[in-house]
Amino acid sequence: MIVIDAFMLLVVLFLLYILMRLVRNDAIFIPTPKKQIRRILKEVGLSKKDVLFDLGSGDGRVVEIAAKEFGCKAIGIENSIVLYYFSKIHLRNVNNAKIIHSDVFRVNLSDATVIYAYLSKKLMKMLKKKFEKELKRGTIVISLDHEIPGWKSIKRIKTGHFYTNIYIR
Question: Within this chain, do residues 77 and 111 fall inside the same structural domain, yes or no?
Answer without folding.
Answer: yes
